[in-house]
Amino acid sequence: MNSAGTASAPRPGLRELKKRRTRDALLRTAVEMFTTRGYDHTTVDDIAAAVDVSPRTFFRYFSGKEDAALALEAMTVAHFLDAVRARPAHEPPMEAMRRAVMEGWDTLSAVVESVAPIEQYLRMYQVIESTPVLLAAHLRHFAETEEQMALLIAEREGLDVDADPRPRVAVAVFSGVMRVTERQWSTGPDFSLAAMRELTATHLDQVGPALAGNWRAPQGA
Fold this sequence. Notes:
Layout: H1 3-6, H2 14-36, H3 44-51, H4 55-61, H5 65-69, H6 71-85, H7 93-112, H8 118-130, H9 132-157, H10 166-186, H11 193-205, H12 207-212
């Protein structure tokens, strides 16, 4: 047996553990303040003081407030991309993305709660949607994620993403559904993870019929 294949990953040293704990504490505090005080009423100095570090230390880990506000989102995007990479090669692209996002909702709590309570993560969606500067950054990151996903799908299918439009088209459709779902959920009456998962499944299940079916209303309707 190849021992290299079974060796566990090296444990991080004390220095790395301390850095990770500091970053997690800053992120957890930032999210708590953003969701209770509001983004505009929270400063870098506030976050740093609450963790008992200097603003200079904050900037070692985050480029600014915006970076901290979107850090949990970046974690979930990375989680989703990893899930797509892990899907069986025989699955069609739309099925692979659908299964990855649905299974991602089932394991999201473990990813997020390593840093912050899942409830605060969910409330950050409302903060982002109601804060113009964060919403603009969120949509910009959304577009960047679409390109990453298109490259990943093209690689899975053995395609040239610049010569074959299908990976970008499929990802654009999928991302559009996710954005509609996200907006509807963040303003709806049930602001739970279960509700987001159910709404995601409902909307993704409608993609095929909605795009391929007849859009015309019945005569006389």
